[in-house]
Structure formats: structure tokens, C-alpha cells
Specification:
single chain, about 240 residues, alpha+beta, six-stranded mixed sheet, 6 strands, about 25% helix
Length: about 240
């Protein structure tokens, strides 16, 4: 008898929130869930489009993916702000459309996208795999992490800030154990609008870009202890 009473009480507690919600409230709740799912899908497609355009040197198309005050930051090259400045800075990666002999593949994997409750902003983290080549040079392998921000502008998702943290580059033939290439610095030909937002070094250093999302199970922020590096002033 006692077990039946406890079971009935448990069912009543679980059912109470559902009964408290009106039909309109439940419809609104489901509509918001669908909207957030559609937002995540749109952002993932936006980032994938960036990758395809960037790979082929379609710099105008890349720049149009950014918000009015959007920023672009690639390693230690510094920060470029607004689509017009970003489009010009992308020429540092090669000519428009990529000339013969160039390879500029930047794949984006392991997407973790978090959309704000109001559906106006979002963040995304991706694993980056890089394959590079240009005439007169040996090929290059690379890896890195994207930590990006997005904003809904005029009803469309756009890139508010794209920050690619290359964490390692190596010569195609020599490989990771024999070749660890340094990151490129700021261009003297077309200086950035701001210096790098975060000084760090790639492999052999083991720098970890900060996470934009909380732990999916515990809900806690992920605290990182970065490797000591006297060159960039980190103890």
C-alpha cells in the first residue's frame, strides 16, 4: 500500500509541470526548440560554405559571409575587421581563385555549436585539418582549432568573429617528428587592424584554445592550465 502511494505521488510530481503548461505554452516551447535546431543547422552550413570558398581562394565570397563589423584572425597574423578589409587580407593566402600549383584546403570537423537562448548569437568550435602547397615550395600539413562567434544580421546568420588557432604545421615529407614549422607573423605588406588577440606558439608547444562551451554533462566551464612559455610571457 505504501509502495503504491509513493508511486502515485511520484507520477503526480512528474505530471504536474505538464498539466501546468497550457497548450499555447507547449507549442511555443516546441517552436523555440525547432528554431534553435534550425539555427544550429544554418550555422553549420555557413561554416561549411566558408571552408569550400576559402579552399578555392574565392575571397569575395568568403568576405560576404562576415557581419558588418566581423573580424578574421588566423594564428599570429593579427585581426582584420570588416568584410572589405578581410577580403583584401585573404590575398595574403594566395591569388583570387588560386593560381596553378596552389593548394589551400582547410577542413572543419567535430562541430560543437551553441546558440544563445534568444537565437541572436552563437558560438562554434571546430577541429581544423590543413593541406597547403604553392609553386616552388614543399607541401605543408597543419592542424588547428576554430573558435568562432556568429550573429543573426538581417535575419541571416553571419560570422561575427572567426579565429583559427593553428596548433601545428609540418613539412609534407619530413612529418611531425622531424619538422615543426613556426606560425607566420603580421604582414608588413598589409598590416592588420589589431595585433593578435592571444599570443601563443604552435607545436612543439601544447597550447589549447579556450573552450566556448560548457561541459555537456556537468555544465561546468572547462578550466585550462596552459603550458609555460617564456617567449610569450606565460609562466
Amino acid at each position: 500500500m505504501i509502495r503504491l502511494s509513493l508511486a502515485a505521488l511520484a507520477l503526480a510530481v512528474v505530471a504536474a509541470p505538464l498539466q501546468a503548461q497550457t497548450v499555447d505554452q507547449r507549442i511555443a516551447d516546441h517552436r523555440q526548440r525547432v528554431e534553435r535546431l534550425e539555427d544550429r543547422d544554418a550555422i553549420e552550413n555557413l561554416q561549411a560554405a566558408y571552408g569550400y570558398y576559402f579552399d578555392k581562394g574565392l575571397w569575395s565570397e568568403v568576405a560576404q559571409l562576415f557581419a558588418r563589423d566581423g573580424t578574421f584572425e588566423y594564428g599570429m597574423r593579427g585581426v582584420y575587421r570588416t568584410p572589405a578589409r578581410i577580403e583584401r587580407a585573404l590575398l595574403l593566402f594566395g591569388p583570387e581563385g588560386l593560381a596553378p600549383g596552389y593548394l589551400n584546403n582547410h577542413m572543419q570537423l567535430q562541430a560543437v555549436i551553441t546558440v544563445a537562448e534568444d537565437g541572436r548569437t552563437a558560438a562554434g568550435r571546430f577541429q581544423g585539418m590543413v593541406m597547403l602547397a604553392e609553386p616552388g615550395h614543399n607541401g605543408t600539413w597543419g592542424v588547428g582549432i576554430y573558435e568562432n562567434r556568429y550573429v543573426k544580421e538581417g535575419g541571416r546568420w553571419k560570422i561575427a568573429s572567426l579565429h583559427f588557432y593553428p596548433t601545428g604545421f609540418t613539412d609534407y615529407d619530413l612529418g611531425w617528428m622531424k619538422s615543426q614549422l613556426p606560425l607566420e607573423g603580421q604582414s608588413a605588406l598589409f598590416p592588420p587592424d589589431a595585433p593578435p588577440s592571444e599570443p601563443y606558439r604552435a607545436l612543439p608547444s601544447n597550447y589549447i584554445p579556450p573552450f566556448s562551451y560548457r561541459h555537456p554533462v556537468t555544465g561546468e566551464e572547462i578550466t585550462l592550465t596552459q603550458p609555460a612559455d617564456d617567449l610569450v610571457g606565460r609562466e
